[in-house]
Amino acid sequence: MKDISERVFRHMAGARLVAADGSVQAGRGAVVRWKGAAGDPAGSLRHELGRLQEPMFVFTGSLPAIEPGDVLEQGGERYTVLHGSRVILGDTVVCTRAVLERKGDEDEGL
Q: CB–CB of 79/29 below 8 Å?
């Protein structure tokens, strides 16, 4: 499968992904605040356990793999990955997308 995501996002800010096993991946992309769907409060997300806390963020960029529980770092901020997937068009990987929750200082010991 052809992957064009590195070329598409080559001028975007750098991002660092720390996987649950401690491995580190580098990529590029943008983290933006998720505005939610019409009728939903901005940045909220439904989950089996109820509504997740606001604000939520979305990463769009180039990373080889991204899994729930990974930590994405960009621009001095740290985010926990809640959901990640790759956007594929035909046989071409266009980008990696992930729903994120910003990590606060209170999350450091978890």
A: no
Q: Is 82:99 a contact under the CB 8 Å cutoff? A: yes
- Whether the CB-CB separation of 59 and 31 falls below 8 Å is answered with yes
pLDDT in tens, the chain (110 residues): 899 999 999 999 999 999 989 999 999 999 999 876 655 555 455 666 566 666 789 999 999 889 999 999 999 999 999 999 999 999 999 999 999 999 875 555 44
For residue 85, report the phi and psi dihedrals to the nearest 5 degrees. Answer: -155, 165
The CA dihedral of 14, 80, 4, 28, to the nearest 10 degrees, is: -10
Closest CA to 97 of 74, 52, 54, 63: 63
